[in-house]
Amino acid sequence: MATRVTDIMEELRSHGNPEAVAGMARYGIRPRRALGVSLPVLRGMGKRIGKDHKLAMQLWRTGTHEARILASLVADPASMDDRTAARWLQDCDSWDIVDQCCGNLFARMASAYANALVWSRSKSEYVKRGGFALMAWLAVRDKKSPDGAFLRLLPAIRRESRDGRNLVKKAVNWALRQIGKRNVKLHRRALALACQLATSPDAAARWVGTDALRELVRPDIMRRLKDLKR
Fold it and tell me: Which structural domain, as residue segments, surrounds residue 205?
């Protein structure tokens, strides 16, 4: 009798699309094992399955790209420990799995802010990206934490803005932009940091700052912030 994970893997394969796998390369996604299943299909499966932490561990161990994204959707944040979360990031072979894990799972863990700061210092490209992707997701999803929680992330953004690895500097930039769009006070602080980085002698930091400024000074963003201030 087939196990549940076997059934789910068969379902994933039935949704596979070789053309989609080939298209991943255009976005810098080159996983070792991919089926080409779309994210809406994976989200639908995750909603139907519900939280099942044991199943998530089994799906992750398959090493299949889409199974790992599905694992991030069905894993229970309350059952996920920090060591396993870091190991998952170490296992990653594509930036999109890192980002999905952070948005679907790691941002919902009680230790999310602490993990973001710890991972931001990692030498591993994927773990470090995870730290800053987690910051970005927290800025979007966490509606309750005070500004101080995000202000404590800015020194890590400043410090690691000089990391020239593409996957890292883009995540650092993403975190800075999302924090800056959260409210008026954080916008002011993020904008000041972006200005500092934009004039840095370091090429990576300069790119992070300059690119962030393009979004943080957009007229529609400024109008939205003015409305929030009223």
Answer: 95-230
Asked if residue 115 is part of any domain, the answer here is yes
Residue 6 located in a structural domain:
yes
- Count of C-beta atoms within a 10 Å radius of residue 2: 9
Per-residue model confidence as pLDDT tens digits over 140-175: 999 999 999 999 999 999 999 999 999 999 999 999
Q: Do 48 and 100 reside in the same domain of the chain?
A: no
Strand segments (E) across 114-226 = none
Helix (H/G/I), strand (E/B), else coil: 223: helix
pLDDT digits (tens, 9 = 90+) for 53-107: 999 999 999 999 999 999 999 999 999 999 999 999 999 989 999 999 999 999 9
- How far is residue 166's CA from residue 120's CA, in Å, rounded to a whole number? 15
Helix (H, G, I), strand (E, B) or coil at 33: coil
If pLDDT is split at 50, 70 and 90, which confidence band does 21 have?
Answer: confident
d(CA 65, CA 37): 9
| Percent helix, percent strand, percent coil in the chain, to nearest 5 | 75, 0, 25
200: left (phi over 0), alpha (psi -120 to 50) or beta: beta
What's the pTM?
A: 0.90
Q: How many domains in the chain?
A: 2
Question: Which of 189, 72, 91, 187 is closest to 134 using CA atoms?
Answer: 72
